[in-house]
């Protein structure tokens, strides 16, 4: 998938190391974001476990890298592919949703001063998302 590299761990075929490129025309543009994806024993009946390893400023991703995304929770379907999950996460970087937040402080900032929040997100991208 363009902008997303997923490598299966050689010791554990259920574990993937993923790099997601920050989408263009977003505060995350130019960044390389490390994500870990793990397929639980219940997969595909249960969603994969996914979290960001790279620190980023986003209302739907908390300080531990957990992601607030409906298809990783109640909207999961066994018909969904890993590719779809990763594309949805990349799309979330393009379109943060401060109304369905995971980090309340970031969401408040995003609602009160979107331009300022995007500037912080750009700064964090420069600071934390350039090592791979």
TrEMBL record:
Belongs to the ubiquitin-conjugating enzyme family. PANTHER family: UBIQUITIN-CONJUGATING ENZYME E2. It comes from the Eukaryota. One of its GO terms (molecular function) is ATP binding. PROSITE patterns: UBC_1 (PS00183), UBC_2 (PS50127). This is UBC core domain-containing protein. Keywords: ATP-binding, Nucleotide-binding, Transferase, Ubl conjugation pathway. Residues 1-130 form the UBC core domain. It comes from Rotaria magnacalcarata. The active site is at residue 68. The keyword ATP-binding applies.
């Amino acid at each position: 998938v363009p902008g997303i590299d997923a490598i299966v761990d050689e010791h554990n075929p259920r574990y993937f190391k993923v790099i997601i490129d920050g989408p263009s025309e977003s505060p995350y543009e130019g960044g390389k974001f490390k994500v870990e994806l793990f397929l639980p024993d219940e997969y595909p009946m249960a969603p994969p476990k996914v979290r960001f390893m790279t620190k980023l400023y986003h209302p739907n991703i908390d300080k531990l890298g957990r992601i607030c995304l409906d298809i990783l929770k109640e909207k999961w379907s066994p018909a969904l592919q890993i590719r779809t999950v990763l594309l949805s996460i990349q799309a979330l970087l393009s379109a943060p949703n401060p109304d369905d937040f995971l980090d309340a402080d970031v969401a408040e900032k995003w609602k009160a001063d979107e331009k300022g929040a995007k500037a912080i997100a750009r700064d964090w991208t420069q600071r934390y998302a350039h090592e791979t």
